[in-house]
Amino acid sequence: MPNQTRGEPAGINLTCGMSGSHEFIFTLVPIVYAFNFVIGIVGNSMVVAVIYCYMKLKTVANIFVLNLAMSDLTFVITLPMWATFAAMGYHWPFGGFLCKTAAGLVMFNLYTSIFFLTALSIDRYLAIVHPVRSRQFRTVVYAHITCVMIWLFAFLLSVPIALTRDVHYIENSKTIVCGTLHPNDKDVKRLNNLLLCISLMKSLLGFLIPFVIIITCYCLIGRALLRVKHIQKSSCSRDDEVLRMLAAAVLAFFLCWAPHQVFHFMQMLTQLILANNCTILEIIDTAMPFTICIAYFNSCVNPIVYSFVGRNFRKNLLRLLRCSPGGVARPHPSISSKMSAFSFRASEALSLTVKNSVSCDVK
After folding, report:
1. Is the pTM of this model over 0.85?
2. In terms of C-beta density within 10 A (0-12 exposed, 13-18 middle, 19 or more buried), how is residue 24 classed?
3. 10 Å Cβ neighbour count for 326?
4. Of the four listed, 108, 135, 203, 252, which is most buried by Cβ atoms within 10 Å?
5. DSSP secondary structure string, 206-273?
6. Where are the alpha helices (DSSP H) in 77-166?
7. In what order do the strands lie in the sheet with 165-170?
8. Could you say which protein family the record assigns here (predicted)?
9. pLDDT > 70 in the chain, percent
10. Taking the alpha carbons of 41, 42, 47, 52 in that order, is the dihedral positive or negative?
């Protein structure tokens, strides 16, 4: 198996050449990565600082949002390496260990981000639709246990990615790349099956199944909120604000990851039945860097969608920038209490349907 040894690694000749190698990619992609790096570092660092200093870890939602921000931070620190890789024409100067580490962290972030978004969606569903019955399960202790399980499970899922990545010398372009292992005559079938399993896990566990769960939770939440609004017979701006927040979260998740998952699925098909079709491989390899840029942008969007939309978060952010003490602050409603407060209104209103008596009183 070809690896770099003293600057003279064994070479690989690509059947279709260096597909997707275009000058505009080598210029545009590093710029986008740099933008994602700056926004991701600043945005997620502010989320961590504000939650830790002012909001504290007293609610389940705050714990999940904090862990989501920490997950994004662990990923964005690898963006300078990927930006350098693209700017140098897909030349990897950092060695085999960082190649494996950076590739593993990319997948680690994919799984942790989506799992935390899913956990947050389930928590919001329980808090709004079943606020009383779910109270015994929605505790800080259970939230911490869930976070530990997510970190461990995501780590296990990302290990195969790290093990199947290494540096290779491409004789066609005289460059060293960080890519998947190149099979030899003895292990072609075994390695291809392993890579196919990894791709299927990425599509199913990294997108499809969590997306179905998130959509289901938010549809049930939306139905409950609309039902309450209908029962109360009154316009409520809080209802609309919650619905907009949920819609923005789902939309951001889908728009950021769907393009990459579509081309990733096409890549799996080429691996199975169209391996020698250089035209299709060229299209996929050209589009893939841009879909990855969009997917990576999700790490920048998360702080905006889940935190910066709240007025109180912006107030606490200003307090943080002014170095105001956090000990005397009032409890911060943020995402959790803003939605939980409405959940008690929802449960109260929904209970009226059982009694068949609808109250139109508004405080």
Report:
1. no
2. exposed
3. 16
4. 108
5. IIIHHHHHHHHHHHHHHHHHHHHHHHHTS--HHHHHHHHHHHHHHHHHHHHHHHHHHHHHHHHHHHHT
6. 79-87, 95-129, 140-163
7. 11-12, 165-170, 175-180
8. Belongs to the G-protein coupled receptor 1 family.
9. 71
10. positive
Mean pLDDT of 318-335: 58
Farthest CA pair distance, the chain? 81
Mean pLDDT of 173-180: 82
Can you tell me the mean pLDDT for 178-185? 71
Could you tell me how many residues make up the chain?
Answer: 363
Top-confidence residue, 314 or 283: 283
Distances (CA, A) of 258 to 121, 166, 208, 213: 18, 27, 9, 15
Write down the pLDDT at residue 240: 52
Give the pLDDT of residue 282.
79
* CA separation for the pair 61, 142 (Å, rounded): 12
Which residues fall within 8 angstroms of residue 238, CB to CB, at 6 or more apart?
A: 338, 342
- In whole angstroms, what is the distance from residue 128 CA to residue 225 CA? 8
Domain extent listing, the chain:
11-345
Q: Characterize the bridge pairing of strands 165-170 and 175-180.
A: antiparallel
Taking a C-beta distance cutoff of 8 angstroms, is the pair 177, 92 a contact? yes
